[in-house]
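Handout, tutorial session.
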Amino acid sequence: MSTAFGQETLVGTVADETKTESENTLPNPTPPDGGGRAWSVLLGVWITQFVTLGCSNSYGVYNDFYVRVYLKDSFTSSQISWIGSVQLLLVFASGLFAGRAFDAGHFYLLMIGGSFLLVFSLFMLSLTHPGQYYQIFLSQGLGAGIAMGITYIPGIAVLSHWFHRRRALAMGIATTGSALGGALQPIMLNKLFHGPVGFHTGVRANAALNFGLLVIALLLMKPKPEMVSRNQGSLRRELRVFMTDPPYVIMVMGLILLSMGFYFPAFFLQLNAIKNGVAPGFAFYTLVILNGTSIVGRAFPNIFAASIGVFTMIIPATAGCGILILSTAAIKDVAGTMTLAVLYGFFSGAYAGLLAPMVGSLAKEDSEIGSRIGICFTFAGFGALIGAPIAGALLTPAFLWWRPILFSGLSVLTGCFLLAVSRFLVSRKRGTPWV
């Protein structure tokens, strides 16, 4: 028996050594960078973005409805803003676990579970009652936020299985889905909420549409098995490694500050337009214009990112966002509101489209991409968590717009400065100005 065991052990050892040697001699799998299957995956990711972040980008419609109608007599603008800010936190923070789960090969579990939870949360939102803050918070803030978060990182990261040289372009194209969703869904929601259908049936109609689109997206998306790393490294080890990378740490700090002010127009632009005397019929389209023009911003700069670098493209975009937020204080009419929506849509779209490629560009190998994006977005999510409520508190019931505008604009510009510092360190390390 002992002889047999020894022979079995020896055979197993030789087999393991042969397997290891064979694995070491095999070339690393390379994404195809095109082909029918790759583009169908991109379409599936695009649809997922249309649904999930399209819902998130439409929160300004909900915020306006809650402040002026649904929660008007019971809660302040700052309290209501916590619903959207907690949703944003969870969209980003869930990526801490979703990114690691994706790297470990659990793509379908994340996408199917997150899609089901999102549709379920929207149907629960349609059952809420006016003035019942906790019902809206649980369904839209917590439920929908977690659902979007556990689908966002895998949906973006799976593109790294199919694209390498064109990865920034593919990610930029995919994020145009969230922009178009953020343009079309507000039209649908405003028409339903303020029409004969009403809030509850309107939310159910939106949930049904999203359910059908998510089914199509799930059928189109697929990871490449040979590209799945099955990464099982500990979170503590990954944090320790990433936090000793100065460009990464400074970039994360910059994104935290950026997130504190970046979403101010998405939350308050429609409300600001109405309070400045813009007719509600036009004000309802401010988010549509903003998200519509961001489609161009998400796709166009990514064409050049592969040659001159994502940092080089994203820094002017974030600087433009900060300047435009500060200029909001001087806007009082339809023409100014439309101009702001168009310009902010473009620059914010460029930032959103380049964000994931920028974070991923600091990964030393593809197996780190999901974890690096997840950890970075988690920290950035805390900036989004506190940014909108602070802006709402600074706004006060008297609607003192200059106070939240100053806070949000300076937060974005300070974050932009830290991104420039990170870019300088990366450029010096790599010995090239194009990063």
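The second record follows below. Compare its token runs with those of the first.
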Amino acid sequence: MMNRFRAGGRFHNLLAAVPLTAAALVAGCTAADQHMMPTPMLYKDPRIELSHLVPLALRSPELPVFYATNRKPVSAGSAGHYSATESETVTLGVADVKLGKPGWDWNQLVASDLTDRIDKPRPARVHQVREFGSLRGDGELTESERAFVAAIDEHLALTRNQDLTLYVHGYRVTFDEVSVLMASFARYLGHSATISFQWPTNLYFWNYLTDCPRALKYIPHIERLIELATHTRAVRLNLVAYSCGSPMLAEALVRLRGRYPDEGQNELQRRFRIGNVIFAASDLDVKTFARDGFPSIRQLATQIIVYVSRNDEALAFSAFLARTSRVGRPDVKELTREELDAFAADSTFEVIDVTDVNGAHELHGMKGHGYWFANDWVSSDVTISMRYPVPAQHRCLKPGSGHNVWLLPDDYQDCLVKRLLETYPVLRPASPP
């Protein structure tokens, strides 16, 4: 399930060189200002400076967010860019997002990180989107798909972070909200390249009963999108799924693994170049994940990270309806000894228990369900794990109760800042705080 997270943005000139024949502009009324995600802890700490690692050509509050969507465009005069109505085709495009107040430059955006408060979120807006064409089901790349890949490669050529992140959202969220959330994360990942798979969902609480089950038919689109991402110049592909986007991503990966039954782990990882697969507040049946998802995904990914919270009321409600616990709020008693042993034996599998982490665990919506972007400590761990895919103990986490279960300790911030400065002295501020 998806917390109501307001986000937004404006036009980015990065892709201005892409021929208009390859990317058609989509008209639509700009929605009311939405909001950036809260600043991760690392970007608020004056002892460390990460923003100066962004190349000069990208030092702007404007960022591109690539997308594939089977939402229909909004009708003339309506706010936003794509609606909650399902389209028969999947459109490839890029959303141009502006972070911060109108008129802000790069320095003002960076300065705002230090004073950011969760009760006073910074505005953002999707200025416009441009379309490349349709995503095809399979086969050779189409002209539209090649243009999409070329635009991603153009962005990767400018940034130091050569990873590509693909995000599958939960329900009850708009196209513009997701675009701004991903623009926020892209910025904290060093203006990296991001893709969101944007499926149609309505904005009422009860839409969970229809939208999430219906979304499972979109799994083949995610399969194709992951395959398409392998044609980019990205060194590594990180995959992130939130809430009821998790079963979609998990099943897509199971199917991709099943296409190559004769290939082993090394061959599969060379084929797909998947780094982290991250499940945040995952609304995925824990037994299905243990039986089908985990054995397949571990063959594809360098690392699997699952964020869990016992205080996630959205997943408590989901478990009540499904009569089985969810990956983001698991009951290990539902698993067999063999399944538990398989989890424990795999050092590349991490469960991060954020139940007792201080700070916000939601912005709107149900209690305890939006911590991965609302909580500045948790979002810092998500960011670090994507930027530097190292084991939990090297990210200053401490062992929890159970194999491969990790916690954020009380000294997490000091430890992480110290460790980063020891490893990367270039991150020291020009003027000591």
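Points raised in discussion: The CA atoms of residues 86 and 227 lie 23 Å apart.
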